[in-house]
């Protein structure tokens, strides 16, 4: 189990973590506000709101694991 979606792409079993694309979009909003003169100390700290589940079925098969269909249905990406 990993926190970054790149690991299942490289052969890891699965990952669940914050979406980097969504984090970078939020960071761009912060940069925009700072460049417009808002003090960084005045900006709120935000928690990630978008998470991604990626499952590598090829690795699961190699490990002899059966991934439940309900988990596969919830996955954002399934690597076969």
3D architecture notes:
This protein has four helices and three strands, in the order αβαβααβ. The longest helix is centred in the middle third of the chain and has 16 residues, at 20-35. A three-stranded mixed sheet has the order 1-2-3. It has 80 residues and is of the alpha+beta class. It is elongated. 9% of the residues are buried.
What helical percentage do the residues reach? 40-55%
User: What structural category do the secondary elements indicate?
Assistant: alpha+beta
The total count of strands amounts to 3
How far the N terminus sits from the C terminus, by CA atoms, comes to 17 Å
Strand order of the largest sheet: 1-2-3
Quick one: overall form?
elongated
The H/E string reads: HEHEHHE
Strand content: 15-25%
The biggest sheet, with number of strands, parallel, antiparallel or mixed sense and barrel status, is: 3 strands, mixed
Can you tell me the residue ranges where pLDDT is under 50 for at least 5 consecutive residues? none
How much is the average pLDDT?
Answer: 93
Based on CA atoms alone, the radius of gyration comes out at: 17 Å
Count of alpha/pi helices: 4
């Amino acid at each position: 189990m990993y926190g970054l979606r790149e690991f299942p792409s490289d052969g890891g079993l699965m990952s669940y973590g914050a979406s980097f694309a969504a984090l970078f979009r939020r960071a761009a909003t912060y940069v925009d506000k700072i460049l417009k003169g808002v003090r960084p100390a005045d900006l709120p700290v935000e928690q990630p709101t978008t998470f991604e589940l990626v499952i590598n079925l090829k690795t699961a098969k190699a490990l002899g694991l059966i991934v439940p269909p309900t988990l596969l249905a919830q996955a954002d990406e399934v690597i076969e």
